[in-house]
Amino acid sequence: MRRDAILRVDGLSAGYAGEHIVHDVSLEVAEGEAITVIGSNGAGKSTLLKAIVGMLDGTRGTVTFDGAGISRLATHRIARRGLAYVPAERHLFTAMSVAENLALGAFPGRPEAAREDLVFDLFPRLAERRKQDAGTLSGGEQQMLAVGRALMSNPKVLMLDEPSTGLAPLLATEAYRVLARLRDAGLTLVVAEQQVPLALDLASHGYVLENGRVDLTGTSQELLGNPDVQRAYLGVA
Amino acid sequence: MRAALLDGIVLGLQYGLLGVGLTLIYGLAGVLNLAHGQIAVLGAIVVSLLMEGGRPVMVAAVVGIVAASAFLVFLDLTLMRAVYHQEGEQRILLGLLLMLGVAFAVEGFITWRYPVQQLSIRISGDAVTILGVPMPVGALVASGIAVAAGLVLVLFFRLTTLGRGVRSVIQDEAGARLCGVNPATVRTLVFGLSGALACLVAVTRSMTGPVGFANAIGFTTLALIVAVVGGLGSVSGAFLAGVLLGIVDRLSSTYIGTYVTTIVLLLCAALTIVLRPSGLLGRPG
Predict the structure, then answer these.
(1) Quick one: how far is CA A207 from the chain centroid?
(2) Per-residue confidence at B266, pLDDT binned at 50, 70, 90?
(3) Please, which residues have CB within 8 angstroms of residue B83's CB and are 6 or more apart in sequence?
(4) ipTM above 0.95, yes or no
(5) Domain spans in chain A, listed from the N-terminal domain onward
(6) What is the four-CA torsion angle of A28, A34, A39, A43, rounded to 10 degrees?
Protein backbone atom coordinates (compact mmCIF):
# COMPACT_ATOMS: atom_id res chain seq x y z
CA MET A 1 0.00 0.00 0.00
CA ARG A 2 1.54 3.30 -1.08
CA ARG A 3 1.57 6.07 1.47
CA ASP A 4 0.91 8.94 -0.86
CA ALA A 5 -2.52 7.78 -2.02
CA ILE A 6 -4.86 10.78 -2.26
CA LEU A 7 -7.90 8.53 -2.55
CA ARG A 8 -8.05 5.10 -0.95
CA VAL A 9 -10.97 2.70 -0.83
CA ASP A 10 -10.82 -0.21 1.63
CA GLY A 11 -13.18 -3.18 1.66
CA LEU A 12 -16.06 -1.27 0.14
CA SER A 13 -19.39 -3.05 -0.32
CA ALA A 14 -22.34 -1.15 -1.74
CA GLY A 15 -25.57 -1.44 -3.65
CA TYR A 16 -29.20 -0.48 -3.74
CA ALA A 17 -32.10 -1.21 -1.35
CA GLY A 18 -29.93 -3.21 1.02
CA GLU A 19 -28.63 -5.52 -1.69
CA HIS A 20 -24.93 -5.22 -2.35
CA ILE A 21 -23.73 -5.20 -5.95
CA VAL A 22 -20.13 -4.33 -5.18
CA HIS A 23 -18.28 -6.56 -2.71
CA ASP A 24 -15.16 -5.83 -0.72
CA VAL A 25 -13.47 -3.57 -3.26
CA SER A 26 -10.16 -1.91 -2.41
CA LEU A 27 -8.31 0.50 -4.63
CA GLU A 28 -6.08 3.52 -4.40
CA VAL A 29 -4.81 6.33 -6.54
CA ALA A 30 -1.73 8.46 -5.93
CA GLU A 31 -1.71 12.19 -6.44
CA GLY A 32 -1.29 13.09 -10.10
CA GLU A 33 -1.94 9.53 -11.23
CA ALA A 34 -4.69 8.25 -13.50
CA ILE A 35 -6.32 4.91 -12.75
CA THR A 36 -9.14 3.08 -14.46
CA VAL A 37 -11.79 0.65 -13.34
CA ILE A 38 -12.73 -1.55 -16.26
CA GLY A 39 -15.40 -4.17 -16.57
CA SER A 40 -18.42 -5.12 -18.59
CA ASN A 41 -21.88 -3.63 -18.28
CA GLY A 42 -23.34 -4.41 -14.87
CA ALA A 43 -20.01 -5.29 -13.27
CA GLY A 44 -20.62 -2.63 -10.62
CA LYS A 45 -18.43 0.23 -11.86
CA SER A 46 -21.11 2.92 -11.49
CA THR A 47 -22.19 1.56 -8.11
CA LEU A 48 -18.59 1.72 -6.91
CA LEU A 49 -18.11 5.36 -7.94
CA LYS A 50 -21.51 6.42 -6.56
CA ALA A 51 -20.71 4.76 -3.25
CA ILE A 52 -17.36 6.60 -3.05
CA VAL A 53 -19.09 10.00 -3.34
CA GLY A 54 -21.75 9.05 -0.79
CA MET A 55 -24.71 8.77 -3.13
CA LEU A 56 -25.78 5.33 -1.88
CA ASP A 57 -27.24 4.26 1.45
CA GLY A 58 -25.95 1.23 3.31
CA THR A 59 -22.39 1.39 2.00
CA ARG A 60 -19.80 -0.53 4.04
CA GLY A 61 -16.04 -0.12 4.11
CA THR A 62 -13.89 2.99 4.34
CA VAL A 63 -13.01 5.74 1.90
CA THR A 64 -10.08 8.02 2.71
CA PHE A 65 -9.63 11.17 0.69
CA ASP A 66 -6.85 13.70 1.12
CA GLY A 67 -5.95 12.33 4.56
CA ALA A 68 -9.44 12.19 6.04
CA GLY A 69 -12.18 9.59 6.20
CA ILE A 70 -15.14 10.57 4.01
CA SER A 71 -17.20 7.38 4.27
CA ARG A 72 -19.88 9.05 6.35
CA LEU A 73 -19.99 12.42 4.64
CA ALA A 74 -22.88 13.65 2.53
CA THR A 75 -22.30 13.98 -1.22
CA HIS A 76 -22.24 17.79 -1.20
CA ARG A 77 -19.57 17.80 1.52
CA ILE A 78 -17.41 15.35 -0.43
CA ALA A 79 -17.79 17.53 -3.52
CA ARG A 80 -16.73 20.64 -1.60
CA ARG A 81 -13.60 18.84 -0.35
CA GLY A 82 -12.42 18.47 -3.92
CA LEU A 83 -13.55 15.03 -5.03
CA ALA A 84 -15.48 15.75 -8.22
CA TYR A 85 -17.62 13.12 -9.91
CA VAL A 86 -19.05 13.14 -13.43
CA PRO A 87 -21.80 10.49 -13.54
CA ALA A 88 -22.71 8.67 -16.73
CA GLU A 89 -26.15 10.31 -16.60
CA ARG A 90 -24.34 13.68 -16.31
CA HIS A 91 -27.08 15.31 -14.20
CA LEU A 92 -26.76 18.66 -15.96
CA PHE A 93 -29.17 21.52 -15.29
CA THR A 94 -30.83 21.28 -18.68
CA ALA A 95 -33.00 24.41 -18.38
CA MET A 96 -29.99 26.56 -17.44
CA SER A 97 -27.40 28.04 -19.76
CA VAL A 98 -23.93 26.59 -20.23
CA ALA A 99 -22.52 29.55 -18.28
CA GLU A 100 -24.88 28.94 -15.36
CA ASN A 101 -24.05 25.23 -15.27
CA LEU A 102 -20.38 26.13 -15.08
CA ALA A 103 -21.04 28.74 -12.39
CA LEU A 104 -22.80 26.12 -10.28
CA GLY A 105 -19.72 23.94 -10.56
CA ALA A 106 -17.94 26.52 -8.40
CA PHE A 107 -20.69 26.55 -5.73
CA PRO A 108 -20.66 27.86 -3.01
CA GLY A 109 -17.98 30.17 -4.39
CA ARG A 110 -18.35 32.56 -7.29
CA PRO A 111 -17.05 31.19 -10.60
CA GLU A 112 -13.49 32.32 -11.24
CA ALA A 113 -12.79 33.77 -14.67
CA ALA A 114 -9.49 31.88 -14.84
CA ARG A 115 -11.20 28.52 -14.26
CA GLU A 116 -13.81 29.32 -16.86
CA ASP A 117 -11.08 30.25 -19.35
CA LEU A 118 -9.41 26.92 -18.67
CA VAL A 119 -12.66 25.05 -19.37
CA PHE A 120 -13.28 27.04 -22.55
CA ASP A 121 -9.70 26.40 -23.60
CA LEU A 122 -10.27 22.64 -23.19
CA PHE A 123 -13.70 22.77 -24.83
CA PRO A 124 -13.95 25.70 -27.30
CA ARG A 125 -17.41 24.44 -28.31
CA LEU A 126 -18.73 25.38 -24.87
CA ALA A 127 -17.50 28.97 -25.29
CA GLU A 128 -19.50 29.23 -28.51
CA ARG A 129 -22.61 27.97 -26.74
CA ARG A 130 -22.18 29.92 -23.52
CA LYS A 131 -25.70 31.36 -23.48
CA GLN A 132 -27.46 28.26 -24.81
CA ASP A 133 -29.51 26.03 -22.50
CA ALA A 134 -27.65 22.85 -21.57
CA GLY A 135 -30.64 20.77 -22.73
CA THR A 136 -30.18 21.97 -26.32
CA LEU A 137 -26.59 20.70 -26.58
CA SER A 138 -25.58 17.55 -28.45
CA GLY A 139 -24.57 14.46 -26.46
CA GLY A 140 -20.88 15.16 -26.95
CA GLU A 141 -21.26 18.79 -25.89
CA GLN A 142 -23.22 17.74 -22.81
CA GLN A 143 -20.39 15.42 -21.85
CA MET A 144 -17.95 18.34 -22.27
CA LEU A 145 -20.16 20.50 -20.08
CA ALA A 146 -20.39 17.84 -17.38
CA VAL A 147 -16.59 17.60 -17.25
CA GLY A 148 -16.26 21.39 -17.43
CA ARG A 149 -18.71 21.86 -14.57
CA ALA A 150 -16.76 19.39 -12.43
CA LEU A 151 -13.51 21.25 -13.19
CA MET A 152 -14.92 24.63 -12.08
CA SER A 153 -14.44 23.72 -8.41
CA ASN A 154 -10.72 23.13 -8.99
CA PRO A 155 -10.98 19.54 -7.71
CA LYS A 156 -8.11 17.45 -6.37
CA VAL A 157 -9.49 14.27 -7.90
CA LEU A 158 -11.81 13.91 -10.89
CA MET A 159 -13.83 10.69 -11.17
CA LEU A 160 -15.64 9.94 -14.41
CA ASP A 161 -18.17 7.22 -15.14
CA GLU A 162 -17.98 6.04 -18.75
CA PRO A 163 -16.96 9.33 -20.36
CA SER A 164 -17.14 7.67 -23.79
CA THR A 165 -20.72 6.41 -23.48
CA GLY A 166 -23.05 7.60 -26.22
CA LEU A 167 -20.19 9.23 -28.13
CA ALA A 168 -19.18 8.42 -31.67
CA PRO A 169 -15.71 6.75 -31.76
CA LEU A 170 -14.04 9.93 -32.99
CA LEU A 171 -15.59 12.00 -30.18
CA ALA A 172 -14.68 9.38 -27.60
CA THR A 173 -11.05 9.55 -28.71
CA GLU A 174 -11.26 13.34 -28.51
CA ALA A 175 -12.69 13.15 -24.98
CA TYR A 176 -9.79 10.95 -23.89
CA ARG A 177 -7.32 13.37 -25.47
CA VAL A 178 -8.71 16.07 -23.16
CA LEU A 179 -8.47 13.76 -20.16
CA ALA A 180 -4.84 13.06 -21.04
CA ARG A 181 -4.20 16.82 -21.08
CA LEU A 182 -5.71 17.09 -17.61
CA ARG A 183 -3.60 14.17 -16.38
CA ASP A 184 -0.46 15.74 -17.81
CA ALA A 185 -1.37 18.97 -16.03
CA GLY A 186 -1.24 17.04 -12.75
CA LEU A 187 -4.92 16.27 -12.08
CA THR A 188 -5.65 12.93 -10.42
CA LEU A 189 -8.13 10.87 -12.45
CA VAL A 190 -10.33 7.85 -11.74
CA VAL A 191 -12.13 6.61 -14.85
CA ALA A 192 -14.66 3.79 -15.02
CA GLU A 193 -14.87 2.53 -18.58
CA GLN A 194 -16.04 -0.19 -20.93
CA GLN A 195 -13.88 1.10 -23.78
CA VAL A 196 -10.89 -0.69 -22.34
CA PRO A 197 -8.21 0.29 -24.90
CA LEU A 198 -8.92 4.00 -24.43
CA ALA A 199 -8.97 3.72 -20.64
CA LEU A 200 -5.77 1.67 -20.36
CA ASP A 201 -4.03 4.09 -22.69
CA LEU A 202 -4.91 6.97 -20.32
CA ALA A 203 -4.31 5.27 -16.99
CA SER A 204 -1.12 3.94 -15.49
CA HIS A 205 -2.97 1.43 -13.34
CA GLY A 206 -6.13 -0.58 -13.81
CA TYR A 207 -8.62 -2.61 -11.81
CA VAL A 208 -10.78 -5.19 -13.53
CA LEU A 209 -14.18 -5.43 -11.92
CA GLU A 210 -16.24 -8.56 -12.45
CA ASN A 211 -19.51 -9.36 -10.70
CA GLY A 212 -18.81 -6.60 -8.21
CA ARG A 213 -15.36 -7.85 -7.18
CA VAL A 214 -11.87 -6.83 -8.20
CA ASP A 215 -10.86 -9.73 -10.39
CA LEU A 216 -7.49 -8.48 -11.47
CA THR A 217 -5.28 -5.47 -10.93
CA GLY A 218 -2.00 -4.25 -12.30
CA THR A 219 -0.28 -1.62 -14.37
CA SER A 220 -1.90 -0.84 -17.68
CA GLN A 221 0.98 -2.60 -19.46
CA GLU A 222 0.41 -5.76 -17.44
CA LEU A 223 -3.31 -5.71 -18.12
CA LEU A 224 -2.82 -5.09 -21.83
CA GLY A 225 -0.56 -8.13 -21.94
CA ASN A 226 -2.89 -10.33 -19.93
CA PRO A 227 -4.54 -13.02 -22.08
CA ASP A 228 -7.78 -12.93 -20.06
CA VAL A 229 -8.09 -9.16 -20.47
CA GLN A 230 -7.24 -9.44 -24.15
CA ARG A 231 -9.92 -12.04 -24.67
CA ALA A 232 -12.65 -10.36 -22.62
CA TYR A 233 -12.14 -6.69 -23.41
CA LEU A 234 -9.75 -6.16 -26.27
CA GLY A 235 -11.33 -8.42 -28.83
CA VAL A 236 -8.17 -10.52 -29.20
CA ALA A 237 -8.99 -14.14 -29.96
CA MET B 1 -63.82 47.97 -19.05
CA ARG B 2 -60.71 50.05 -18.42
CA ALA B 3 -61.48 50.17 -14.70
CA ALA B 4 -61.96 46.39 -14.62
CA LEU B 5 -58.62 45.89 -16.36
CA LEU B 6 -56.71 48.17 -14.00
CA ASP B 7 -58.42 46.64 -10.97
CA GLY B 8 -57.58 43.25 -12.40
CA ILE B 9 -53.89 44.07 -12.65
CA VAL B 10 -53.84 45.39 -9.07
CA LEU B 11 -55.60 42.27 -7.81
CA GLY B 12 -53.51 40.04 -10.07
CA LEU B 13 -50.22 41.28 -8.60
CA GLN B 14 -51.54 40.16 -5.22
CA TYR B 15 -52.50 36.80 -6.72
CA GLY B 16 -48.99 36.49 -8.10
CA LEU B 17 -47.46 37.22 -4.72
CA LEU B 18 -49.81 34.67 -3.19
CA GLY B 19 -48.96 31.97 -5.73
CA VAL B 20 -45.21 32.42 -5.76
CA GLY B 21 -44.76 31.22 -2.16
CA LEU B 22 -46.69 28.05 -2.85
CA THR B 23 -45.08 27.35 -6.21
CA LEU B 24 -41.53 27.56 -4.84
CA ILE B 25 -42.04 24.95 -2.14
CA TYR B 26 -43.73 22.60 -4.56
CA GLY B 27 -41.04 23.01 -7.18
CA LEU B 28 -38.32 22.37 -4.65
CA ALA B 29 -39.60 19.82 -2.19
CA GLY B 30 -42.63 18.32 -3.93
CA VAL B 31 -44.78 19.52 -1.04
CA LEU B 32 -48.05 21.20 -1.91
CA ASN B 33 -48.53 23.61 0.97
CA LEU B 34 -52.27 23.52 1.56
CA ALA B 35 -51.75 25.67 4.67
CA HIS B 36 -50.35 28.62 2.71
CA GLY B 37 -53.41 30.83 3.21
CA GLN B 38 -53.80 29.82 6.83
CA ILE B 39 -50.19 30.72 7.57
CA ALA B 40 -50.69 34.06 5.77
CA VAL B 41 -53.65 34.84 8.02
CA LEU B 42 -51.75 33.71 11.10
CA GLY B 43 -49.07 36.24 10.16
CA ALA B 44 -51.72 38.91 9.62
CA ILE B 45 -53.10 38.28 13.11
CA VAL B 46 -49.64 38.66 14.64
CA VAL B 47 -49.27 41.98 12.80
CA SER B 48 -52.68 43.26 13.90
CA LEU B 49 -52.10 42.29 17.55
CA LEU B 50 -48.80 44.16 17.53
CA MET B 51 -50.44 47.20 15.94
CA GLU B 52 -53.14 47.15 18.60
CA GLY B 53 -50.33 47.08 21.15
CA GLY B 54 -49.15 50.39 19.75
CA ARG B 55 -46.26 49.23 17.55
CA PRO B 56 -45.63 51.10 14.29
CA VAL B 57 -46.93 49.38 11.13
CA MET B 58 -43.45 48.69 9.78
CA VAL B 59 -42.24 47.03 12.98
CA ALA B 60 -45.41 44.99 13.29
CA ALA B 61 -45.20 43.87 9.65
CA VAL B 62 -41.57 42.82 9.92
CA VAL B 63 -42.22 40.83 13.12
CA GLY B 64 -45.24 39.14 11.51
CA ILE B 65 -43.21 38.23 8.42
CA VAL B 66 -40.40 36.81 10.54
CA ALA B 67 -42.92 34.84 12.63
CA ALA B 68 -44.62 33.29 9.58
CA SER B 69 -41.22 32.51 8.11
CA ALA B 70 -40.08 30.86 11.36
CA PHE B 71 -43.26 28.79 11.47
CA LEU B 72 -42.58 27.27 8.05
CA VAL B 73 -38.91 26.70 8.88
CA PHE B 74 -40.09 24.85 11.98
CA LEU B 75 -42.39 22.67 9.84
CA ASP B 76 -39.52 21.94 7.45
CA LEU B 77 -37.24 20.85 10.27
CA THR B 78 -39.82 18.71 12.08
CA LEU B 79 -43.02 17.46 10.44
CA MET B 80 -41.70 17.51 6.87
CA ARG B 81 -38.73 15.25 7.68
CA ALA B 82 -41.06 12.27 7.29
CA VAL B 83 -42.00 13.50 3.83
CA TYR B 84 -38.42 13.85 2.59
CA HIS B 85 -37.76 10.16 3.25
CA GLN B 86 -40.40 9.29 0.66
CA GLU B 87 -40.07 9.43 -3.09
CA GLY B 88 -42.38 10.26 -5.98
CA GLU B 89 -46.11 9.88 -5.55
CA GLN B 90 -45.87 8.86 -1.89
CA ARG B 91 -43.92 11.98 -1.10
CA ILE B 92 -46.51 14.23 -2.75
CA LEU B 93 -49.39 12.45 -1.04
CA LEU B 94 -47.84 12.48 2.43
CA GLY B 95 -46.84 16.15 2.05
CA LEU B 96 -50.37 16.97 0.94
CA LEU B 97 -51.98 15.21 3.90
CA LEU B 98 -49.61 16.65 6.49
CA MET B 99 -50.05 20.17 5.15
CA LEU B 100 -53.81 19.73 5.09
CA GLY B 101 -53.55 18.77 8.76
CA VAL B 102 -51.48 21.90 9.45
CA ALA B 103 -54.11 23.98 7.63
CA PHE B 104 -56.88 22.59 9.84
CA ALA B 105 -54.81 23.04 12.99
CA VAL B 106 -53.90 26.66 12.20
CA GLU B 107 -57.42 27.52 11.15
CA GLY B 108 -58.81 25.84 14.26
CA PHE B 109 -56.42 27.81 16.42
CA ILE B 110 -57.43 31.09 14.80
CA THR B 111 -61.18 30.36 15.10
CA TRP B 112 -60.65 29.42 18.74
CA ARG B 113 -58.50 32.33 19.88
CA TYR B 114 -58.93 35.12 17.34
CA PRO B 115 -62.23 34.61 15.50
CA VAL B 116 -62.85 38.32 14.93
CA GLN B 117 -59.27 39.61 14.81
CA GLN B 118 -58.61 41.37 11.50
CA LEU B 119 -55.67 43.15 9.98
CA SER B 120 -56.43 46.31 8.14
CA ILE B 121 -53.72 48.77 7.21
CA ARG B 122 -54.98 52.13 6.06
CA ILE B 123 -52.77 54.10 3.73
CA SER B 124 -53.94 57.72 3.78
CA GLY B 125 -53.97 59.90 0.70
CA ASP B 126 -56.25 60.85 -2.15
CA ALA B 127 -57.00 58.46 -4.96
CA VAL B 128 -54.61 58.78 -7.91
CA THR B 129 -56.14 58.96 -11.35
CA ILE B 130 -54.51 56.55 -13.80
CA LEU B 131 -55.78 56.46 -17.41
CA GLY B 132 -58.91 58.20 -16.23
CA VAL B 133 -59.60 55.68 -13.48
CA PRO B 134 -59.27 56.79 -9.84
CA MET B 135 -57.12 54.25 -7.96
CA PRO B 136 -56.96 54.19 -4.15
CA VAL B 137 -53.48 54.81 -2.74
CA GLY B 138 -53.62 51.56 -0.73
CA ALA B 139 -54.06 49.55 -3.92
CA LEU B 140 -51.11 51.30 -5.54
CA VAL B 141 -48.81 50.80 -2.55
CA ALA B 142 -49.83 47.12 -2.39
CA SER B 143 -49.09 46.77 -6.10
CA GLY B 144 -45.75 48.51 -5.71
CA ILE B 145 -44.74 46.11 -2.93
CA ALA B 146 -45.84 43.08 -4.99
CA VAL B 147 -43.85 44.25 -8.03
CA ALA B 148 -40.80 44.99 -5.87
CA ALA B 149 -41.02 41.58 -4.18
CA GLY B 150 -41.34 39.88 -7.57
CA LEU B 151 -38.31 41.74 -8.94
CA VAL B 152 -36.22 40.96 -5.87
CA LEU B 153 -37.12 37.27 -6.21
CA VAL B 154 -36.29 37.13 -9.91
CA LEU B 155 -32.97 38.91 -9.37
CA PHE B 156 -32.15 36.68 -6.42
CA PHE B 157 -32.76 33.52 -8.43
CA ARG B 158 -31.01 34.77 -11.58
CA LEU B 159 -27.99 36.57 -10.25
CA THR B 160 -26.95 35.33 -6.83
CA THR B 161 -24.95 32.19 -6.11
CA LEU B 162 -27.47 31.06 -3.50
CA GLY B 163 -30.43 31.71 -5.81
CA ARG B 164 -28.73 29.67 -8.51
CA GLY B 165 -28.19 26.94 -5.93
CA VAL B 166 -31.93 26.88 -5.21
CA ARG B 167 -32.75 26.56 -8.90
CA SER B 168 -30.20 23.78 -9.29
CA VAL B 169 -32.00 21.70 -6.64
CA ILE B 170 -35.36 22.34 -8.35
CA GLN B 171 -33.92 21.08 -11.65
CA ASP B 172 -31.73 18.16 -10.66
CA GLU B 173 -31.16 17.32 -7.03
CA ALA B 174 -28.42 14.75 -7.67
CA GLY B 175 -26.60 17.19 -9.95
CA ALA B 176 -26.91 19.88 -7.28
CA ARG B 177 -25.35 17.61 -4.65
CA LEU B 178 -22.44 16.86 -6.97
CA CYS B 179 -21.89 20.62 -7.29
CA GLY B 180 -21.66 20.97 -3.52
CA VAL B 181 -25.19 22.27 -2.94
CA ASN B 182 -26.86 20.95 0.21
CA PRO B 183 -30.52 20.32 -0.71
CA ALA B 184 -31.62 20.34 2.95
CA THR B 185 -30.26 23.87 3.52
CA VAL B 186 -31.87 25.08 0.32
CA ARG B 187 -35.18 23.54 1.39
CA THR B 188 -35.11 25.26 4.78
CA LEU B 189 -34.27 28.55 3.08
CA VAL B 190 -37.15 28.25 0.63
CA PHE B 191 -39.63 27.27 3.36
CA GLY B 192 -38.61 30.38 5.29
CA LEU B 193 -38.89 32.51 2.16
CA SER B 194 -42.34 31.10 1.42
CA GLY B 195 -43.56 31.85 4.94
CA ALA B 196 -42.29 35.41 4.65
CA LEU B 197 -44.06 35.82 1.30
CA ALA B 198 -47.30 34.43 2.78
CA CYS B 199 -47.35 37.05 5.53
CA LEU B 200 -46.24 39.79 3.10
CA VAL B 201 -49.23 39.14 0.87
CA ALA B 202 -51.56 39.21 3.89
CA VAL B 203 -50.09 42.60 4.78
CA THR B 204 -50.50 44.02 1.27
CA ARG B 205 -54.02 42.60 0.93
CA SER B 206 -54.94 44.33 4.18
CA MET B 207 -54.21 47.66 2.47
CA THR B 208 -57.34 47.26 0.33
CA GLY B 209 -59.57 45.36 2.74
CA PRO B 210 -59.51 43.60 6.11
CA VAL B 211 -57.76 40.23 6.35
CA GLY B 212 -58.93 37.71 8.93
CA PHE B 213 -59.76 34.08 9.52
CA ALA B 214 -62.41 34.07 6.77
CA ASN B 215 -59.75 34.76 4.12
CA ALA B 216 -57.57 31.74 4.88
CA ILE B 217 -59.20 29.09 2.71
CA GLY B 218 -59.66 31.54 -0.16
CA PHE B 219 -55.96 32.45 -0.07
CA THR B 220 -54.95 28.80 -0.23
CA THR B 221 -57.34 28.09 -3.11
CA LEU B 222 -56.14 31.10 -5.08
CA ALA B 223 -52.50 30.29 -4.44
CA LEU B 224 -53.12 26.78 -5.80
CA ILE B 225 -54.90 28.07 -8.90
CA VAL B 226 -52.16 30.61 -9.60
CA ALA B 227 -49.42 28.01 -9.12
CA VAL B 228 -51.14 25.53 -11.44
CA VAL B 229 -51.73 28.10 -14.18
CA GLY B 230 -48.25 29.63 -13.87
CA GLY B 231 -46.38 26.34 -13.74
CA LEU B 232 -45.27 24.75 -10.49
CA GLY B 233 -41.85 26.02 -9.52
CA SER B 234 -41.79 29.11 -11.73
CA VAL B 235 -41.52 32.57 -10.12
CA SER B 236 -42.23 34.59 -13.26
CA GLY B 237 -44.95 32.10 -14.17
CA ALA B 238 -46.72 32.77 -10.87
CA PHE B 239 -46.74 36.54 -11.46
CA LEU B 240 -47.82 36.19 -15.09
CA ALA B 241 -50.62 33.81 -14.11
CA GLY B 242 -51.54 36.05 -11.18
CA VAL B 243 -52.03 39.12 -13.36
CA LEU B 244 -53.96 37.18 -16.03
CA LEU B 245 -56.22 35.59 -13.41
CA GLY B 246 -56.68 38.95 -11.68
CA ILE B 247 -57.94 40.45 -14.95
CA VAL B 248 -60.19 37.42 -15.56
CA ASP B 249 -61.47 37.78 -11.98
CA ARG B 250 -62.40 41.47 -12.36
CA LEU B 251 -63.89 41.06 -15.86
CA SER B 252 -65.94 38.09 -14.72
CA SER B 253 -67.26 39.83 -11.61
CA THR B 254 -68.08 42.95 -13.62
CA TYR B 255 -69.78 41.24 -16.55
CA ILE B 256 -70.95 37.89 -15.21
CA GLY B 257 -71.29 38.12 -11.45
CA THR B 258 -69.23 37.93 -8.28
CA TYR B 259 -70.54 34.54 -7.26
CA VAL B 260 -69.36 32.69 -10.34
CA THR B 261 -65.90 34.27 -10.29
CA THR B 262 -64.27 31.51 -8.26
CA ILE B 263 -65.78 28.96 -10.64
CA VAL B 264 -64.38 30.87 -13.60
CA LEU B 265 -60.92 30.91 -12.00
CA LEU B 266 -61.13 27.17 -11.27
CA LEU B 267 -62.12 26.64 -14.91
CA CYS B 268 -58.96 28.50 -15.93
CA ALA B 269 -56.93 26.08 -13.80
CA ALA B 270 -58.79 23.09 -15.26
CA LEU B 271 -58.22 24.35 -18.81
CA THR B 272 -54.53 24.80 -18.08
CA ILE B 273 -54.26 21.24 -16.81
CA VAL B 274 -55.92 19.95 -19.99
CA LEU B 275 -54.16 22.17 -22.55
CA ARG B 276 -50.79 22.82 -20.96
CA PRO B 277 -50.25 20.53 -17.96
CA SER B 278 -46.90 22.10 -17.03
CA GLY B 279 -48.45 25.57 -16.79
CA LEU B 280 -47.70 28.80 -18.68
CA LEU B 281 -44.00 28.99 -17.84
CA GLY B 282 -43.42 25.61 -16.21
CA ARG B 283 -41.12 23.06 -17.75
CA PRO B 284 -42.74 19.85 -18.97
CA GLY B 285 -41.87 16.69 -17.10
Answers:
(1) 14
(2) very high
(3) B29, B30, B31, B91, B94, B95, B98
(4) no
(5) 1-82+158-163+189-237
(6) 50
Q: What is the mean pLDDT of residues B204-230?
A: 95
Report the gap between the CA of A210 and the closest CA in chain B (Å).
27
B283 interaction partners in chain A (CB closer than 8 Å): 95
Beta strands A83-86 and A157-161, pairing class: parallel
Domains of chain B are 2-120+137-275 (1.10.3470)
Q: State how far residue B202 is from chain A, nearest Cα, in angstroms.
A: 33
Average pLDDT, chain B: 94
- Could you tell me the pTM of the whole model? 0.90
Does residue A237 have a pLDDT over 80?
A: no
The superfamily (CATH) of domain A1-82+158-163+189-237 is P-loop containing nucleotide triphosphate hydrolases (3.40.50.300)
Alpha-carbon span B181 to B185, nearest angstrom: 8
Of the candidates B221, B160, B162, the residue with the CA atom closest to the CA atom of residue B187: B162
Q: Which amino acid is at A218?
A: G
Q: Do B172 and A94 touch (CB under 8 A)?
A: yes
Question: Which of B173, B178, B182 to substitute to test the interface with A, most A CBs within 10 Å?
Answer: B178
Looking at the partner chain, which of B165, B177, B183 has a beta carbon nearest the beta carbon of A79? B177
Residues of chain B with C-beta less than 8 angstroms from the C-beta of A91:
172, 174-175, 178
Q: Is the pLDDT of residue B285 over 50?
A: no
Contact across the interface for B168 and A93, Cβ inside 8 Å? yes
pLDDT attached to residue A1: 47
